[in-house]
Design goal:
1 helix; 7% helix; globular; two-stranded antiparallel sheet
Length: 182
């Protein structure tokens, strides 16, 4: 059996039209990430009898937690989608560039979430996280200037595994990271 290596892992996403439903044969957008901890964690529920000896009376199914952290350099081409899925919809004004986008916290989130695919390309295994919502979006501004970093905490509704990607094609942004000078 082939051992997966982290340097061969790819992340891609597509916006859903309905929450938790990935569009068929989607054109997915690659995420240029610097670190990720997406996965599935489960914890068994343990029943403890309260008494003199506090004896465990058995374990049963517990919760399943799907999602995790994604760390990336913020790019102009992807920041809009990330902000829309963490803060809500934007009101855009202007008929030509430069446009003005106003985001207000608490506005309505898109009806669909994100489907994020984690591909272990060297092992031919894929995990599809459906119905993803961005729980936390953190921006890091390095003290000496440079690229602005982003950390996303993602919660997923469901996870599926497969031996091939669901993407019909992959788009790569090749965009410049947002940076600043001190």
């Amino acid at each position: 059996m082939t051992q997966a290596r982290g340097n061969s892992t790819k992340l891609s996403y597509v916006e859903e039209n309905s929450f938790g439903v990935t569009p068929p044969s989607p054109q997915m957008r690659l995420i240029s990430f610097t670190g990720e901890e997406l996965g599935v964690r489960s914890e068994a529920s343990v029943q403890v009898e309260d008494g003199a000896e506090r004896v465990s009376t058995g374990a049963g199914p517990g919760y399943i937690d799907a999602g995790g952290k994604i760390t990336l350099d913020t790019e102009f081409n992807s920041i809009g989608t990330l902000l829309k899925h963490s803060l809500g919809s934007a009101v855009t004004s202007g008929s030509s560039a430069p446009f003005t986008h106003v985001l207000r916290g608490g506005s309505s989130l898109p009806p669909g979430g994100l489907s994020i695919e984690k591909g272990f390309n060297d092992a031919g295994r894929f995990m599809l996280f459906k119905g993803c919502r961005i729980d936390t979006l953190s921006l890091r501004f390095p003290g000496d200037g440079g690229p602005v970093g982003t950390t996303l905490d993602v919660l997923a509704k469901t996870v599926e595994t497969a031996s091939s990607s669901i993407a019909s094609s992959l788009l790569e942004d090749n965009g410049a990271p947002i940076s600043y000078q001190v």
